[in-house]
Amino acid sequence: MSDKGLSRRSLLGGAVAGGVASVAATNPAAAKPLAAEPMAAGQSAAAPSHLLRASAITTTSDPWLPDGTHLRVNVSPRIGLPLHPLTAFRIDVVPIYTRPDKLETSTQHVWLNPDLSVAATGGGIRHTGSGDVHYLVLHGWQWTFRAVRCCFVRLLTQSGSAFRVDVLDPTAELPDAEPRVLATRTAPSYEFGGTDITLLRVSGAGVVDLVEIVSTESPYIVIDPAQAVSFGLPIGSGPWYAPEPATDPVAAARTRVEQGAARRMGPPDRPDGAVVPLTPADEVNRVQALSGASSGLDYWLARAFTDPATPPLDARVSLAGGPVADASGTISPLNALLAAAVDPAVARHLGLAARVNPPTGTSVCTLWMVAGLWLLPLDRPHDAGTLRSLITGFPPPAHVVSALYSRYPGLSALATQRVTQLRAAHPTDGWTAVPLMVPAVAAKATPDRPAAPRTLALPAATWRVTTGERLWTQRIPLLGPAAGGMLGLARLSPTPVSLHGTIRVGSVDRARAMVAHWDRHHDDAGSVTDLAVTGPSNSWGLWRADEFGRWSDRSTVAAPAPAVAGPPTPIVEAEFRPAIPDGGLQPRSPGALRIRIGVPGPSLPGALPSRDVTSPGGAPVTSALLTVDGVPQPAIPVPAGVTSVVATVAVREFGVGDTAAIPVIAKLVDAAGRPSAPAEVERTVHDPRAYAPLRVAPTLLFAAERNPMGDSELGLEWSGGAWGYRVYLGDERRLGGTGAGPRCERAAEVWARSGHLADRRRFTLVTPKPLRAAPDGVVRFTHRLPGSLRNVQFVRVVPVTSAGVETPFETCGLTPVAVPVPDRPPAPVVQVRPRGDGRVDVTITATGLRDDLLAGLTEPPQARLRRGRLADSDPEYMPVVQTGIPLVKGPDGTWSATVVDGPAAGFPGYVRLTWLAEVRYPAEPHLPADALPAGSDVQPIGGVPAGPQVSGWGPASPPTNTVLTPEVQLVPRATVRPGQGYNEILVTNAPVSHRYAIAPHQVVVHRFFASGPYPSAALPPVPITATTTVVRDTTVNPRPTGYMVVITDPFGRSAPPVYVQY
Which InterPro entries did the record assign (predicted)? Predict the structure, then answer.
C-alpha cells in the first residue's frame, strides 16, 4: 500500500481517470475517439495477459540470437494449450499521417510523479537532471477511465536526450515496491512491443516530445488470413489436437528449433565466458536429447494428449515408480511441459516460439495477432475466480475465428465432439470451445539485454554432513521482483564450474535450464543454493536470460566458508538405578545414574549414518565431559568409531522420601580441544524409602458440637515431618466393630486391631491431594461429619513422599474420633422452700432421662441452678449460682437433688427471687475405665488436650419464684419538732427496705386533738429510705396535741404503734 491508501491498479486507474478528465475539460474534441465505430466499451479483442501473453523482438547482429523477429507465447496452466497450432496473423504498421491509423499520437496518457501524483496529462515531459523520474500511464483508443492496453509504444525524444526507459509490470505496488521490469532501452529509439504495455518508467535527462502507440483496441487493426504463420506441437492428430494439414509437425518443430537456434553457448555451459559457437544442428540435437530422456518431452506429451477420456488440463501422472527419480505424488503433464518451455529451444519445439520475418523497411513495427481455440472449463471453481469471469468481454473478431476454422478443417468437428463429451462427463464445469487472441509487436529496435541478477545479503554458510571431502552450503538470495526466463549459476573458484544439471548430447554434457524459486510472501525474494562448496571461501557468478534466450552480464557474489565447527552436540540419556534397601532411616544415596552419551555421526543422503565421529567441518571427537548435579566428572575417552560411551555416577545423599531433579550436562571434545554445545537432561530422583508412621493412641477424640447446618467439624493437627500426608477415614462397622457398649471401649477394641486392617477398601480417602505442613511446621486437617453420626470413626494418617511412596498402610495407626451425642435431658422441675435462717431449700427433679445413654457410665446426671431477681425468666440473663449438682435416682425412676441456696445471712426480705435449673447427662469418657492415657502425635486442633466429652445442658425448667417476708423486729422512736407554721415528726430506728424489695417500708402518722370540731386524721404515708424519716404536718391551727406513728411493711402489714405527745 502507498501512503495515499491505494495500491496496484486502483492507484494507476485513479491517476488515468484524473488525467483523462483533465484532457476532456481542456480539449472537448478529445472527449471521444476519432475513429468510427469502435468496439463496445469495456471489451477488448485481446485476452488478459495473465492468461495469455505474446511478445516479440527483432534482432540484428545479436550475439545470442539469429537475425529476424522472434515470437514467444506464454500460456497460463489454467488454460493450457489450444486444440491446434497457434496462428499468428501479421499486420505491418505503416504511419499514415493524413488520417488516423493503427499508429496514433497519444493524447490521453498521464505522466505521474514518483509519488504517483499527476504531473501532466498528454503531451511530452522535460527532465533537467539525470536523477529525474516519471511514470507514464498509457491510454489507448478505447474510452474508459482505466489504464487500457497498448501493444506498441514509441517515445519521440529530442536530440541529446539520455533516457533509460523501462516497461514495467502494471500490477506493481507503486510507489513502495520495486516493480518488475519487462523490457528496457537506454538509447534511442525508445520503442517497445508487447501484449500489455500500460506502465513505463522514464528516468534520466532529456525531453520527450511525443508518445506514439498502437492500442489493442484499435479498430484499424485488420486481420489478413493470408499473412499468417502457424507453430504447434510436435505431435500428429489426436483426441485433443488437430495439426495443420499437409504439414509434418515433427519436421516443422525441427525447423523452428533450427531457425531460432542460439548462436553460442550460454553461461550455463560456459561460465568462463568463452565464446563457443553453436550450429542449428547442435540445438536440434540438444532438444532431441531432452525429448527422448526417460522423463523428457515426449514422455509428457504422450501423457497429456493421448488419453481420449481426459483432457490435457485434467491429466495427472503419478510420480511413484515413474521416470523421475526419488519423486512422489502426482503432476500435471501439461505443467511439466510449460515448465520445460522456459528453455527457448524447448518453447520452439513445443510450438510456443518461432522466428518470423522482421518488419518491412517502410513499417514502424510489425503487429502479430496470435490466436487459437481453447477447450476450457469456464465454470470450474478456482481461488482466483472462474475462467468465465476472467475472459468474458475478450472475444476475437468473428473473422479471426472463421480464419482458424478455415486453416484447420477438422477443428470445428473436434471442438464440438469434445465439448459434448466433457459436458456430459462434467456438467457443472461449463466446458466450452473458447477463441482467444493476443497481440505481439515486433519493434525495429531491439530492447536491451536483461539486467544482471541482483542479490541480497548472503546468509551464513553451513557445513554439510559428509564423510568425505569437507563441503559447505551457500544460499544466494535474489532481490525481487520475480523475473521470467532462465537463470545461470556457476561457482567461480578455483575455476568457473557450472552448477546446472546436465543432459548427455552426443559426446558432451549440456546444461539444463535453471529457474529461481520466487516467494511472493517474502517481498518476492528468490534464491538459488550451492550444496557442495569447498575451500575457505568461494564466489559465484549469476546470469539472467530473457524469454528469447539472450543472456545478461554476470553479477558476482562471494562468501567465506562457515566457521570451523566444533563437535556435534551429543545425545544424553540418564537412567536411575535405585540402591538396595537397607531398612535404615539415616541419610544415604538413593542409587546411581547410568548415563549414556550418544556420539552423533554424519549422515549421507539416502544412506545410514556414517560413524566417523566427526562434526561437519570439524575434527574427530576424542572425549566426553560430564557434569552431574553440578559436580564435574572425570573425562571419558571416546574411541574412534563408537556410537556412545557410558558412565555410572552415584547420586548424593538423600533424606527419607526426598526428591530432587538431578541435572546431567554432557559435552563432546574433539582432537583440537574444541567442546561441543552442551546437551542437558534432568532426571528426577526419589529416595525409595517411606517415612515412619505417626505415633497414635486409642484415646477417643471428639469433633465439635453440631452446628446449625447439622454438621460437626472434626479438626486434627500434627507436626509435619514428612513431605505430605494422606488421610483415610473408616467407620467402626466397616472395620469389624460391634457397635455395642460405650464408644471409648469400642474405639479401644478396633484400635488394638489396627495392624490387621490393611484393606484400603474399608477406608475412604478424604484427601486425594496430600496435606502439606503450614509455614509453622504443623499439618492441620479438618473434615465435616454428619451431626447425627453415632458410630466411632477412625482416622488413619499415612505419610507420603514427594515420589508418592506411602508408609505401609497397616503400620499407620488409627485415631478414633466421635461426634458428640446430641441428646439432651428434658427440662426439670424446681421447688423452693424458705428456711428459718433466711435461705431456701431448692429441690430439682428430672424425669424422662434415657437409660441407654446412662448405661455403662459411672457418673450420675448433673444439674445446675440459676437465680435472678428479674421478672424475665430467660436463662441467658440469669446467672448460674450452683453447678455440677449430682442427681440421685429415686425408686420411681426420677432423678432429684435438694440444695440450700442463699448467703449465710439469708436473703433480704421482700425481694422477689426466681430460680431455674438445667440438667445434663454425664460426660462421655474418652478412655475405658481401666485404661491409662497414652501419648499421640495427632491432637485436636488448637492444642486442646484430650479428655471426656462433657454433655450439653438440656432446656431450662419453668421458673419458680418467692418473696421472703420477715417480721418487723425494730420498735421505732418518734419525736416532734415544732416549726413556724408546721410540725415535723422525726421517726428513727425504723426498718429500711432492700433496694430490690418489691416496695419500701412506710411511716403513717395520725394526729390527735384535745377537743374541738377536728377529728383525728392520718397524714400521707412517707417511705422509709434512711435511718431518720421526717413527716411534716402543716396543720397548726389548732395544733394537734399528739401523734400516733405506725410502721407498715411492703405488704401493708402494720407494726405496733408508737405515741408521741406535743
Answer: TAT_signal
